[in-house]
């Protein structure tokens, strides 16, 4: 059990020493000293100095921080959350996670003291397993599309008051496609429906560490009891639990016990159950007996919707549809990279005062774009365009100016600029040694025609799909 002593710190700016002689103030002052040295005065002043403490939730180990704007919250969360979390954990182990929110006005610190009750067993400590949920990852912040709608609907059923028709729910996707977001969303929604419920969310790695630690301390029975008292158990990255016989055995018994009690179990992995290497067949059977919901890679439309959703929450940020389309088409490996690229672009534009243009995106996101682009060649583009328009391949380099030839050639130049890292002069050389100004004219013309001519826009979309497939 915990008792909470509230300390009013209305004017407490965590980037400065306030003189309040509290443990958390002193820890933050130490952390700030290191951050100012590591990040430099300019970055520290821009991002770290404005942070304020809001509240510390001892039962889940969550330290809530307040920043001046939603943009700042996103930027700090993406760039410095891991560094800040590690710093707090090293100085104050009770902090297990940080949340960042944009709120104005007074902030309060809740200073927590753990109090031991007479006769209380360690297995009854409510902070034994902490619920580390990201406040951003809720159902209303999850953008649905054809690739993830099954998983979303299944996750919502798990969190609903009615008992789901399946257990466990097995979420499967490659990295960065949203399975962890759905698990956090389940936790948030279930906590609202059942405020007194016992919810446990942890990674498979943490499950193994906790289990081994309990074994070493002769607390295995307490560990098992704590898990089996859960109303909702969620284990992420289950692929890392394979190959560990004793851990698999314990996890199997835990899942069996919870299912037999009508409790809810959710697991997530980067591959389907049948593809897990070294997994016990009994555990494989349990994981497969519920619903396996596959999240496919996000398609272009979903990537576009996600970017637009993010930007809708930042109306002061001006990003053209052309830039959104470019990012959605180019950063296609996973959604985490897509949002990270957008955040980097927004921050650079804000700090430098430059407009967010296609050229700025190519310049500042070159590392991400290079990694994400499939190595499509100009030769491949020319071949595909010629097949689509039923032209001979040599027409891409010919001097003919007939519209039936010139327009497909211009489309191919446009696609070469959109889908390859080649410069205008390099593209021109591949099209019969044409000048770079000819390529620039072709790119601008096709961009204009796409907005005016639905047939042209449809042609380009079809070619993009063929080349990306």
From TrEMBL:
Primary location class: cytoplasm
InterPro entries on file: Chromosome_initiator_DnaA, Chromosome_initiator_DnaA-like, Chromosome_initiator_DnaA_CS, DnaA_C, DnaA_dom, DnaA_N_dom, DnaA_N_sf, P-loop_NTPase
Segments forming domain Chromosomal replication initiator DnaA C-terminal: 377-446
Single GO BP term: DNA replication initiation
SMART domains linked: Bac_DnaA_C
Pfam families per record: Bac_DnaA, Bac_DnaA_C, DnaA_N
Chain residue ranges for the region called Domain I, interacts with DnaA modulators: 1-122
Gene3D superfamilies: 1.10.1750.10, 1.10.8.60, 3.30.300.180, P-loop containing nucleotide triphosphate hydrolases
UniProt keyword annotations, A-Z: ATP-binding, Cytoplasm, DNA replication, DNA-binding, Lipid-binding, Nucleotide-binding
Subcellular location: Cytoplasm
Region (Domain IV, binds dsDNA): 350-469
Role, per record: Plays an essential role in the initiation and regulation of chromosomal replication. ATP-DnaA binds to the origin of replication (oriC) to initiate formation of the DNA replication initiation complex once per cell cycle. Binds the DnaA box (a 9 base pair repeat at the origin) and separates the double-stranded (ds)DNA. Forms a right-handed helical filament on oriC DNA; dsDNA binds to the exterior of the filament while single-stranded (ss)DNA is stabiized in the filament's interior.
Family statement: Belongs to the DnaA family.
Name used for this protein in its record: Chromosomal replication initiator protein DnaA
Native organism: Parasphingorhabdus halotolerans
């Amino acid at each position: 059990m915990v008792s909470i002593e509230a300390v009013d710190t209305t004017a407490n700016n965590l980037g400065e020493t306030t003189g309040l002689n509290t443990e958390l103030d002193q820890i933050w002052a130490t952390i700030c000293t290191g951050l100012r040295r590591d990040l430099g005065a300019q970055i520290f002043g821009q991002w770290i100095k404005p942070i304020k403490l809001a509240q510390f939730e001892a039962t889940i180990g969550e330290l809530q921080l307040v920043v001046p704007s939603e943009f700042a919250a996103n930027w700090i969360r993406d760039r410095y959350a891991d560094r800040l979390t590690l710093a707090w954990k090293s100085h104050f182990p009770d902090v297990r996670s940080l949340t960042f929110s944009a709120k104005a006005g007074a902030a309060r610190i809740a200073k927590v003291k753990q109090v031991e009750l007479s006769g209380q067993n360690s297995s009854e400590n409510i902070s034994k397993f902490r619920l580390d949920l990201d406040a951003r990852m809720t159902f209303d912040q999850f953008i649905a599309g054809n690739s993830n709608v099954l998983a979303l609907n299944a996750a919502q059923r798990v969190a609903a008051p009615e008992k789901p028709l399946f257990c466990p729910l097995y979420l499967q996707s490659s990295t960065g496609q949203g399975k962890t977001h759905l698990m956090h969303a389940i936790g948030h929604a279930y906590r609202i429906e059942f405020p007194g419920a016992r919810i446990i969310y942890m990674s498979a790695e943490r499950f193994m560490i906790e289990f081994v630690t309990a074994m070493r301390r002769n607390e295995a029975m307490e560990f098992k009891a704590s898990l089996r008292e859960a109303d909702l158990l969620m284990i992420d990255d289950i692929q890392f639990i394979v190959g560990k016989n004793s851990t698999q055995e314990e996890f199997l018994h835990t899942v069996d016990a919870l299912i037999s009690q009508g409790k809810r179990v959710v697991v997530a992995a980067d591959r389907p159950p049948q593809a897990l290497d070294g997994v016990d067949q009994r555990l494989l059977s349990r994981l497969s007996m519920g619903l396996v919901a596959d999240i496919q890679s996000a398609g272009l439309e979903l990537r576009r919707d996600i970017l637009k959703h993010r930007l809708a929450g930042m109306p002061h940020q001006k990003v053209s549809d052309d830039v959104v389309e470019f990012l959605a088409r180019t950063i296609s490996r996973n959604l985490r990279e897509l949002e990270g690229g957008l955040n980097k672009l927004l921050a650079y534009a804000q700090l430098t005062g430059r407009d967010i243009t296609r050229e700025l995106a190519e310049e500042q996101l070159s590392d991400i774009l290079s990694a994400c682009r499939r190595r499509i060649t100009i030769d491949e583009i020319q071949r595909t365009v010629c097949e689509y328009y039923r032209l001979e391949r040599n027409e891409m380099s010919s001097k003919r100016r007939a519209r039936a030839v010139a327009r497909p050639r211009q489309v191919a130049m446009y696609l070469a600029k959109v889908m390859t890292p080649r410069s205008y002069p390099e593209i021109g050389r591949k099209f019969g040694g044409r000048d770079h100004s000819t390529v620039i004219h072709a790119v601008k013309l096709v961009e204009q025609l796409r907005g005016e001519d639905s047939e042209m826009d449809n042609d380009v979309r079809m070619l993009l799909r063929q080349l990306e497939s």
